[in-house]
Amino acid sequence: MAESDRRRPLQVLLLSDGLPGHGNQARGLVNWLRSRYQLECHEQEVRLRLRPLARLLMPWLLRLGRPGAGLVRCFYRLDSTPVGVPDLIVSAGGNTSFLNVALARLKGVPNVFLGSKRRLRSDDFSAHLTLQPTGEPHNIVMELVPTLTDVEAQREAGDALRRELGVEAGEKLYALVIGGNGAGFAYDEASWQQLTRLATELAQRDRCRWLLTTSRRTGSAGEAVLRTSLDGQLLAAAVWWHEAPRKVMNAYLGAADAVLVTADSMSMINECIASGKPTLLLEPPGAQPDARYRGALERFVAADYCRHHRLGEPLPALGWQAPANQAIRSRLLDVLEQQLALDS
């Protein structure tokens, strides 16, 4: 940013494809940037037209420079007209990647992208943020995916939930965050039964109750097994998504003494780790995530951000130190600041 502009807020254009997991990664990064910079974020939801053809042509068009970038813009439908020239473009999710590059070239501004680059290169972006290295210029390997978590606000929400539930001081609550099929993970009746046994045995061993939430991907069949098999007295509160969806993660994570989360969703994992609570990743037998996903999980465990448990194995301990999220955030912002030449 020019010397004369340093006092005005950083203008950030956030491109969203409408998928919560992608949008929240980009919003999380903007949230982290906001801890260091004065900024104004303008979010633009975009839709990709003629998707199969567009994905085939757009990488080639972007090799043609500004004329190709202008044609890439035609493959997108925007929910509104972009406002002015931003100082920075941010997005996550493959469907936004091509427009991210095109607008950065047309407007002559730096751009940041989180996630898989599809058929682009890391140096098509000023900074390409991934959990696994690409081996290319401009790639920054994240320790964790940025989240919208405000730990203090989360703690307050958790305290309010404990009061609402009439939980006695000192009583242990564990959160159980359940996903479903995806990312190489598959659940059948046997694996849901194993999850139920784990919850029952931990409740008995640690004298805790559960804050349980399923998700869209759990499905009605999985929920039916869990509800039938799990003693309701072990639940302090539960959300069965298929029956009555409610967003409770913030309060549950704030109230919990420890968190167990199925390992099939990177966004759920990052949100749980960002809570600062001891986090245990649960994996059903036979899970086969791809090498990139498995590598990210192994890096989290190696850094002691969380631990890993395969269903059916002996019960784990849950008393390790949670990660220092503020330090993780600062390290990423330091690298971004240098790479993007931003002024605080």
Describe the structure.
This protein is α/β, with parallel strands linked by helices and 344 residues long. It has two domains: 3-144 and 328-340, Rossmann fold; 151-322, Rossmann fold, CATH 3.40.50. It is built from eleven helices and 13 strands. The chain has helices at 20-34, 51-62, 66-73, 94-107, 151-165, 189-206, 219-229, 249-255, 266-274, 291-302, 325-340; strands at 10-16, 39-48, 76-78, 88-92, 111-114, 127-130, 139-141, 172-177, 208-213, 235-239, 258-262, 279-283, 307-310. The radius of gyration is 22 Å and the shape is globular.
Name of the CATH class of the largest domain:
Alpha Beta
**CATH fold topology of the largest domain:** Rossmann fold
Distance between the termini: 10 Å
How would a crystallographer describe the biggest sheet? 7 strands, mixed
List the domain count as a whole number.
2
- Envelope shape: globular
Class by helix and strand content? alpha/beta
CATH homology-level superfamily of the largest domain: Glycogen Phosphorylase B
Give me the side-by-side strand order of the main sheet.
3-2-1-4-5-6-7
Compute the number of helices.
Answer: 11
**Secondary structure tally: strands:** 13
Q: What order do the SSEs take from the amino end to the carboxyl end, as H and E?
A: EHEHHEEHEEEHEHEHEHEHEHEH
Helix content: 25-40%
- The proportion of residues in beta strands is 15-25%
Which descriptors would you attach to this protein?
7-stranded mixed sheet, alpha/beta, 2 domains, 13 strands, Rossmann fold, 344 residues, 6-stranded parallel sheet, globular
